[in-house]
Specification:
91% helix; 0% strand; mainly alpha; 111 residues
Length: 111
C-alpha cells in the first residue's frame, strides 16, 4: 500500500495543475485567436482543416483537465479512506494493548 505522503504529493501536483488550468485555457484561447486571424490568408479547405485541428486540440485539453479533476477527487477519496483506516488501526492496536494488559493481570492474579 502506498504511503499517505505519496498520495499527498500526487494530490498537490494535481491541485497545482488545476490551479494552472485558467492560465492554460487563456493560452489555448490566444492560440486559437491567432490561428483564426490567419485563416483569412489560407484556402477554404485548409481553413476548415485548421479549425478542425483547433477544435480537436481544445477538446483534448478539456478531456485531460476533466480526467485530472476526476483523479484529484479519487485521490481525495483515497486519502480520506486511508485516514479512516489509520484511525481504525490505531484503535485496534489500543484495544489489543488493553486486552493484553488485562490478560497479563488476570494470569498474574490467577497464579
Amino acid at each position: 500500500m502506498k504511503s499517505a505522503a505519496v498520495y499527498q504529493k500526487h494530490l498537490d501536483e494535481l491541485k497545482k495543475l488545476c490551479e494552472d488550468r485558467e492560465h492554460g485555457q487563456a493560452l489555448v484561447a490566444a492560440a486559437v485567436e491567432a490561428g483564426e486571424a490567419l485563416l483569412s490568408a489560407v484556402t477554404p479547405e485548409t481553413r476548415e482543416s485548421v479549425r478542425t485541428e483547433l477544435r480537436t486540440l481544445r477538446d483534448a485539453i478539456e478531456s485531460l483537465l476533466d480526467n485530472a479533476n476526476a483523479v484529484q477527487k479519487n485521490i481525495d477519496s483515497i486519502m480520506m479512506q486511508r485516514a479512516s483506516l489509520d484511525e481504525s488501526q490505531q484503535q485496534v492496536c489500543i484495544s489489543f494493548s488493553l486486552a493484553e494488559e488485562r490478560f497479563l493481570q488476570w494470569t498474574t492474579c490467577a497464579k
